[in-house]
Amino acid sequence: MMTDRQRKFRAQYMSKVSPLYNGLVHIAVMYAAGIGAIWYCATQLQNPTWEWALVVPVFLAGNFVEWAMHTFVMHRRIDVFALRAIYERHTREHHQYFTDNDVTIDSTREFRIVFFPWRVLIVLGIGGGTLGYLASLAINPNAGYIVFITMVGMYLNYETFHYCCHVHDNWFTRNMPFVNTIRRHHTAHHNMGIMMKYNMNLSYPIADWFMGTSDLKRGLLGHLFNGRSEKHVKEELKPIVARFRNDDVQNTRVTLDGPVLNSEERGAMAM
Predict the structure, then answer these.
(1) CB 82, CB 211: distance < 8 Å
(2) Tens of pLDDT, residue by residue, the chain (271 residues)
(3) How far are the Cα atoms of 47, 165, 183 from residue 173, in angstroms, in the given order?
(4) Which of the listed residues 3, 121, 203, 247 has the most CB atoms within 10 Å of its CB?
(5) Could you give the residue ranges of the DSSP H alpha helices within the chain?
(6) Which of 97, 83, 101, 91 shows the shortest CA–CA distance to 10?
């Protein structure tokens, strides 16, 4: 159940969203640009064979970059304009708007707090284009296009999974493999007590498993196909998670910059 603190923040946030904002236009531009870029690159391929194997290392590297960006930029305030803005938007807005008490949206206007702004597409285009160009020089043009296709595909995968984490529960989110896993994983990340340390992946929890920042205690395959199960949640985290769902605790021990933990809670999270 949504707390008073969360309800007030939502009302305040939505009151500041421009009346000109259109959530459907937001995602239409994003997906059209991404799918268009993938289509263009696919039409430039010249009978690729072994180059498709590059998808695997690019995917794994991207999964760890996703984890690192979430851990060290989205949840660590770096006093540099662009990086500070990312932190403000994520920790001080997204994590106040959504908690594990209520992680869902009710209207397309709320896409503003779910999807990245369009400027991320520009950054992705520059970064992906640069890496693709370098791969084309180091290997061949097919390799460059496949690197770029993989990076854009991962971005669209990220945004789609994130959307699935914030819509109301339905048959698809309950039963689709990987989607049901990441929905539970991300909902747990939105708990106000553990949000700064656990469940930093938003696509596949590979880096979280490898880096020990998952709230689950199980192997890689167990993480990937965990689904909605809470059976393997670490015992030391359960009291913290339950405590920080309470409105009184949130009002007294949660700030816009994260929770104020006591020594016992810090010790449990260091285990």
Answers:
(1) no
(2) 899 999 999 999 999 999 999 999 999 999 999 999 999 999 999 999 999 999 999 999 999 999 999 999 999 999 988 899 999 999 999 999 999 999 999 999 999 999 999 999 899 999 999 999 999 999 999 999 999 999 999 999 999 999 999 999 999 999 999 999 999 999 999 999 999 999 999 999 999 999 999 999 999 999 999 999 999 999 999 999 999 999 999 999 999 999 999 999 999 998 7
(3) 37, 8, 7
(4) 203
(5) 4-15, 23-44, 55-69, 81-89, 95-97, 111-114, 119-138, 141-166, 171-175, 179-189, 206-211, 220-224, 238-243, 247-253, 263-269
(6) 97
In SS3 terms, 150-218 reads as HHHHHHHHHHHHHHHHHCCCCHHHHHCCCHHHHHHHHHHHCCCCCCCCCCCCCCCCHHHHHHCCCCECC
Q: Is the pTM of this model over 0.85?
A: yes
> What's the N-to-C CA distance of the chain in angstroms?
30
Per-residue burial over 86-115, b = 16 or more CB atoms within 10 Å of its CB, e = otherwise = bbeebbbbbbbbbbbbbbebeeebbbbbbb
The tokens 């690197």 sit on which residue?
147
Domain segments of the chain: what residues? 4-12+21-269
Instruction: Return d(Cα 47, Cα 154) in angstroms, integer.
Output: 23
The long-range contacts involving 199-202, CB below 8 angstroms and separated by at least 24 positions, are 200/66, 200/67, 200/70, 200/71, 200/75, 201/63, 201/66, 201/67, 201/70, 202/66, 202/70, 202/158, 202/161, 202/162, 202/165
Helix (H, G, I), strand (E, B), or coil: what is residue 252?
helix
Q: Would you mind telling me the total number of residues written for the chain in this entry?
A: 271
